[in-house]
């Protein structure tokens, strides 16, 4: 057995063109993925096939060509832009005498680099272990415990079986910890549902600008960068929307073509925020030449995670990269907003997005005038916190005369907290 690699900073890329797929864009995206993983691309080997070959995925001759190219450029790892079976991965490693990683393994490696929170690290580790469980090989024969002879007879468990048992135990431990996290998230969702607080979830293709838009709306300092999978850990922030009141905005992980199923399963607790959302904001890079393919890829993932029934508002981001383009709102035949064009980076069109959110999430609104005595300043302060005061004046008795516009739900909450509030209403508009 050769020594498995430890570095992997210099790579040879392999891509197979299949007639039924749009492979040029897929190859370009793979190069961006490799760069995002901070790996240097030494060379790219491409070939064409109608179907994958069973042993090497590519043909025997092309496999030998890949081995020669890896040796010539001294690559420490070969990255294949396809999902390989464990057997194909091992066969290529034995032929090329260096580490072989498929597309799924590369994405998992990027996720491992970007995970920051405890939950994110657990989710990535779970996905990695599930991926690794089918790729354990007999590379530990010096630790074998089924050999014959005096002093060599052991408990009858091979090292491979030991590895698999330890792997299963670790997976079960991670699943139990993630179950606690999911329970905590579920409690938070139930609390928001009970309080009737809308949840708005940002979804979209990776690097479409979700975190930049999130920061622009909320003023948060979420990490945002021009790279794939800059965001892994979901972030929640409260925002205020006119005629809606308090809402929760959720920044989520970006989607990508051929998203590994292990990742979808591992990020179940995170993706639950998308399934349970009141409204999805589908962030789209309007300047991307492959935006239609990216939209289709996101729609496929939404179907996979059973979130395709949640109402969607498309947000065409990065219009500052388009020539002579101004922010606008696209509406359907009923006048309902279906798409808004803006630039999160430049802060252009954000007010149009809030206008769309107010229309889509608007609830019954109550307009009235109040006359609050001086000792009810705390109640007056609450109306200002909810941003519901339209006008105010103070009379000779020191009473606060307020003209308010407030969602009916918020009004009902205040009436429960301060039943005397109804006695201060002087006029309904």
Can you tell me about this structure?
The chain has 429 residues and is α/β, with parallel strands linked by helices. 39% of the residues lie in helices and 22% in strands. The chain is built from 13 helices and 15 strands. The strands form three sheets. Strands 6-7-5-8-9-11-10 form a seven-stranded mixed sheet, with helices on both faces. A four-stranded parallel sheet has the order 2-1-3-4, sandwiched between helices. A hairpin with a 5-residue loop joins strand 13 and strand 14. Helix 1 packs parallel to helix 4. The chain is elongated. The termini are far apart. Residues 1-8 and 138-142 have low confidence and may be disordered. Pfam families: GTP-bdg_M, GTP-bdg_N, MMR_HSR1. Its cofactor is Mg(2+). Its main location: cytoplasm.
**Can you count the helices?**
13
Overall helicity: 25-40%
Could you say which structural class the secondary elements and strand pairing correspond to? alpha/beta
List the secondary-structure elements in sequence, H or E. EHEHEHEHHHEHEEHHEHEEEHEHEEHE
Mean pLDDT: 79
Domain Hflx-type G: 198-365
Function: GTPase that associates with the 50S ribosomal subunit and may have a role during protein synthesis or ribosome biogenesis.
Subunit structure: Monomer. Associates with the 50S ribosomal subunit.
Subcellular location: Cytoplasm
């Amino acid at each position: 057995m050769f020594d498995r690699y430890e570095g992997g900073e210099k790579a040879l890329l392999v891509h197979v063109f299949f007639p039924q797929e749009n492979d040029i864009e897929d190859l370009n995206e793979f190069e961006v993925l490799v760069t995002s993983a901070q790996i240097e691309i030494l060379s790219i080997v491409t070939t064409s096939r109608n179907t994958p070959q069973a042993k090497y995925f590519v043909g025997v001759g092309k496999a030998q060509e890949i081995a020669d190219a890896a040796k010539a450029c001294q690559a420490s790892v070969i990255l294949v832009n396809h999902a390989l079976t464990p057997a194909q991965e091992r066969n290529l490693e034995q032929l090329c005498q260096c580490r072989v990683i498929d597309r799924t393994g590369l994405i998992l490696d990027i996720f491992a680099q970007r995970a920051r929170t405890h939950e994110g690290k657990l989710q990535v580790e779970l996905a990695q272990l599930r991926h690794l469980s089918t790729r354990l090989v007999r590379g530990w024969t010096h630790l074998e415990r089924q050999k014959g002879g005096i002093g060599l007879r052991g408990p009858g468990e091979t090292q491979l079986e030991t590895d698999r048992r330890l792997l299963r135990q670790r997976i079960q431990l991670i699943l139990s910890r993630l179950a606690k996290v999911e329970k905590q998230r579920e409690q938070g969702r139930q609390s928001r549902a009970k309080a009737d607080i809308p949840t708005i979830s940002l979804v979209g293709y990776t690097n479409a600008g979700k975190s930049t838009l999130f920061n622009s709306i909320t003023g948060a300092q979420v990490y945002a960068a021009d790279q794939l999978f800059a965001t892994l850990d979901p972030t929640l922030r409260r925002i205020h929307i006119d005629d809606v009141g308090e809402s929760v905005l959720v920044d989520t992980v970006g989607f990508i073509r051929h998203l590994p199923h292990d990742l979808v399963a591992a990020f179940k607790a995170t993706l639950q925020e998308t399934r349970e959302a009141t409204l999805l904001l589908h962030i789209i890079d309007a300047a991307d030449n492959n935006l239609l393919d990216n939209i289709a890829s996101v729609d496929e993932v939404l179907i996979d995670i059973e979130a395709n029934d949640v109402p969607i508002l498309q947000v065409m981001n990065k219009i500052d990269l388009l020539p002579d383009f101004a922010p606008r709102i696209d509406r359907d035949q009923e006048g309902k907003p279906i798409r808004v064009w803006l630039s999160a980076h430049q802060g252009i069109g954000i007010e149009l997005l809030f206008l769309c959110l107010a229309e889509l999430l608007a609830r019954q609104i109550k307009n009235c005038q109040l006359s609050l005595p001086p000792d009810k300043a705390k109640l007056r302060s609450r109306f200002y916190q909810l941003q519901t005061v339209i006008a105010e004046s103070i009379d000779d008795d020191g009473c606060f005369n307020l003209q308010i516009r407030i969602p009916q739900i918020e009004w009902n909450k205040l009436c429960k907290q301060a039943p005397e509030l109804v006695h201060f209403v002087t006029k309904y508009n």
